[in-house]
Amino acid sequence: GQQVMQIPQYQHVQEGEDFTTYCNSSTTLSNIQWYKQRPGGHPVFLIQLVKSGEVKKQKRLTFQFGEAKKNSSLHITATQTTDVGTYFCALNAGGTSYGKLTFGQGTILTVHP
Amino acid sequence: KAGVTQTPRYLIKTRGQQVTLSCSPISGHRSVSWYQQTPGQGLQFLFEYFSETQRNKGNFPGRFSGRQFSNSRSEMNVSTLELGDSALYLCASSLGYGGGTDTQYFGPGTRLTVL
After folding, report:
1. In this predicted structure, what is the pLDDT of residue B100?
2. What is the pLDDT of residue A67?
3. Per-residue CA distances from B47 to A93, B36, B56, B89 (Å)
4. How many Å separate Cα B104 from the centre of its chain?
5. Which of A61, A69, A29 is nearest to A44 (CA)?
6. Is the preceding omega at residue B108 within 30 degrees of 0, hence cis?
7. Is the CB of A43 less than 8 angstroms away from the CB of B106?
8. Cβ A100–B42 below 8 Å, yes or no?
9. Rounded to a whole number, what is the distance in Å from the CA of B56 to chain A's nearest CA?
10. What span, in angstroms and rounded, lies between the C-alpha atoms of B41 and A102?
11. What is the mean pLDDT of residues A73-80?
12. Chain B CB within 8 Å of residue A100 CB
């Protein structure tokens, strides 16, 4: 089945610095979703990207889907301590892959005040 | 609209026992998916139910099973517990129309510890 590699595994930043996490696939993706999980919490849906080259913004968060639909990134500008958590990309292969999300390994973000 | 609820939130069992976890989806959602989250393996898909039928299944042994009721509530059962079953078990609900663009909404999870 389809898989995604997510890097980096860990990222430590000072508050105010930027942060980026990347997801890469060897196959073309129909869509990609991003989730955030706070420490001790559960994954919370952030956004879904479907179109080639798509860019979406949510305040300080910018999500991109590659032109070839094989990679995606999440960029946070000027991190805050509230950004702490694990960021996951996830894909649904579509078709008969009902309800099945394949998650990347996640990037654990630590923000030092 | 109320979110996804899971009960119990925490559970401690011993090896060999069995356990049943419950999930109530968001009102109107007909699909419930179950995931296991561990530090080593990350988030792994267990199975998905829609209209009381299992539509999709991950690569877990037969000790892991589930069901869905007519009101879309779902349960998962793990029999003959092993130490390696210690994990956070998450359920997620969605409308269930498939096509790959369904957004999943996760519950708070059940933390299972097997001693």
Report:
1. 63
2. 95
3. 15, 10, 5, 12
4. 13
5. A61
6. no
7. yes
8. no
9. 6
10. 12
11. 98
12. yes
Cα distance between residue B60 and residue B54, in whole Å? 14
How many angstroms away from the CA of B48 is the closest CA of chain A?
6
Nearest-neighbour CA in chain A from B44: distance (Å): 7
For chain B, say whether A31 makes contact (Cβ under 8 Å). Answer: yes
**pLDDT grade for A93, boundaries at 50, 70 and 90:** confident
At A12, the pLDDT band (50, 70, 90 cuts) reads: very high
Alpha-helical segments (H) within chain A: none
Closest-approach residue (CA) in chain B for A40: B108
Tell me the Ramachandran region of residue B30: left when phi exceeds 0, alpha when psi lies from -120 to 50, beta otherwise: alpha
In whole angstroms, what is the distance from residue B68 CA to residue A71 CA?
35
Chain B nearest-CA distance from A102, in A, is 7
Pairs of CB atoms within 8 A across A/B: 82
Low-confidence ranges of chain B (pLDDT < 50): none
Nearest CB to B100 within list A41, A93, A103: A93
Q: Give the chain A residue whose CA is nearest to the CA of B39.
A: A105
Query: DSSP strand E in chain B: where?
Result: 5-7, 10-13, 19-24, 31-38, 42-50, 53-57, 64-68, 74-78, 87-94, 105-106, 110-114
Q: Yes or no: say if B7 and B110 are a contact pair by the CB < 8 Å rule.
A: yes
User: What are the tokens at B18?
Assistant: 């069995």
Chain A partners of B90 at a C-beta cutoff of 8 Å? 42-43
